[in-house]
Amino acid sequence: MAGRIPQHFIDDLLARVNIVDVIDGRVKLKRAGKNYSALCPFHKEKSPSFSVSPDKQFYYCFGCGAGGNALGFLMEYERLSFPEAVEELARLAGMEVPREHDRPADLAREQQIKTQFSVLEQANQFYQQMLRHSPNRQSAVDYLKRRGLNGQIAARFQIGFAPPGWDNLISYLGNQAAAPDDIVTQLERSGLVIHNEERHRYYDRFRDRIMFPIRDMRGRVIGFGGRVLGDEKPKYLNSPETDTFHKGKELYGLYEARQHSNHLDRLLIVEGYMDVVSLAQHGITWAVATLGTATTAQHLERIFKIVPEVIFCFDGDNAGRQAARRALDTTLPVIRDGQQARFLFLPEGEDPDTLVRKEGEAAFSQRVSEALPLSEFFFRALSEGSDLSSMDGRARFSTQALPLIQSMQPSLLQQMMMDRICEITGLSLEQLSSVIDLHRVTEPAPEAASRAPSRTPTSLPPEYAPPAADYADYGQLAPSDEPRPPTAQHTGNRSNRSRGSHLNLVNSAISILLHRPALAAQLPAASELEGISEPNIELLVALIDYLQTTPGASLGTLLVDWQLDNTHAAWLMMLNEIAHLDPILAGVDAGGLLSDTYSRLLERKVESRLDQLLKKQRQTPLTDNEKKQLQELLMRSPPSSH
What we know:
With 642 residues, this protein is α+β, with helices and mostly antiparallel strands.
């Protein structure tokens, strides 16, 4: 953990730098009397209202109100944190940032990080020298020429060469160091050498590869990527995770893109180092690459702090479409109003490097301008394989799309995408909100599948323990807790329900089926439940019948089908209510519990019919069929029941 920056140093730093020099290197200033003026970099304007005062060492925009000192400008313009802005300003002034440390461990760690950066930069210089002077350099030079790179672009990205051999880097830096053993330790911590414990020796991680240094926002080397010259595997090798390098956060080419342009407004995310370098050589200097991993939420949050627009670039093959779908899923929860994401698909068999060399910057830029907006790609990707002209197809589409849209930040884009769902399904926003609510609460918990199944009541968690020792009564409500008719009062105030509320048998079965609709296929025909006198039994019969008789049935199709049928409105309200009750799926075998629940309902049907016949027998003679039925029921009923 870095120590605090002393206030006296910050004051001294601001006294040493000239705010005009800091801003003029990023925004073109013009003299205006005693001050300087420019178009404001923080909002769009046609006439300059941005003023910089060298006397006061202060900037101010009369249009948007932005203002501050040199540190504030760097934080706003470069999207830097306060410590990062101090570091950058100190670099411009040629000063070292001191730290105040509360613990010796903090001081030791900071010194270790500084040493690591130094070792990485020395390695970077070594690889660049090897590209110019190594006896084995020709194969690397020929490779870069075949890929169309010139010396100027190679110098801009500081491309180097790791010659063949086991310990070239170790030997070079060891000869430069006063303590060779210490430099080997630092090289290992920096991810540049590997320790073979069996042979008790160290060797270079990168050998016979083109080397691409990965630099952070301040231009410091934090790691490397190496590409083989032939077809060996792995084609690309990245530095491992270290104290300075975290591949899930960093982007190759971001430093170079920001150095080339004072004010970026978009970034193109590609796959490989060579894609970034080749695009830059052809004039597309705003491309970056992830480092051997898919784009993460951390990547996007960082990018959107720098630019308002990101364009994902993918191959047009199956793998490219799958990667695009993963990028879509990652982007949806991150993107906000004022930000934009688009998706560019290249012709199959092409990548940015080959395509820009083949057709040039203008044609490639035209492709970028035609990239699909996020919303368009979203609806195109999710509608693949669904027949939106059919009710079932729209239901399947909605089941996939609604949770993704709901994961988004509240925004105009989210609202517009919901409106589009309304157009596709023919449902209102109010109905869709009900569908989303029901879908969310009926999704099985992620950990449920990993829990050990059990059908014995003693293994249930305490909050789901049966109210009595008799397992036949498990899940029954007390008489005063019997469900009320599906009225508006019944569907409200769910939060007042106690955590330990239990469902009756019918509601238990409904709750299980809402969580696991596929289990309906294991049950006997729904018609066998007809004739049972239990609250909500008609809803359970209808639910089972729908799931058993509708091809491709799911909760999504049921919601859409029943929404379109006004006669099912009360049932949908009841489903929503039951779904909000505490589920009884935790720690039990859902299929087994559903089977047991179904069996007990059938037993109640038998008992109910038996009671009817016994009561009738006391009042009037039974028919022959009734007598036969009574005899069969008495044979099935436990002796102590009557």
